[in-house]
Amino acid sequence: MNKKLIYFTNIISPYRHDFFNQLSVHYELTVVYQAEYFGGVPEEWHPDNSDFNYKAVFLSDGVIEERKIKLSAIPILFG
Questions:
Q1: Of 12, 67, 65, 18, which is closest to residue 43 (Cα–Cα)?
Q2: Which side of the chain, N or C, has fewer Cβ within a 10 Å radius?
Q3: Please, which residues have CB within 8 angstroms of residue 60's CB and are 6 or more apart in sequence?
Q4: Is 23 within 8 Å of 48 (Cβ atoms)?
Q5: Which tens digits make up the pLDDT trace of 30-70?
Q6: What whole-number distance in Å separates Cα of residue 26 and Cα of residue 29?
């Protein structure tokens, strides 16, 4: 059985997505995202959820305008 790992970040970015897919080979990985998009990012940064090799949790749909993670993410750890 793989060890569990939870990673918190604000949005999906292409370079992290590839890293997470590789990390999921060694861990049971859950990535908690603040939202799907950040205002002003290029279209190619928008997620294609079909190629996730890990569990992705989005705390809100659509766009966020802030660059910090909300503390509302904490219950994910205990849920």
A1: 12
A2: N
A3: 34, 35
A4: no
A5: 998 888 777 777 777 766 666 889 999 888 777 776 655 55
A6: 8
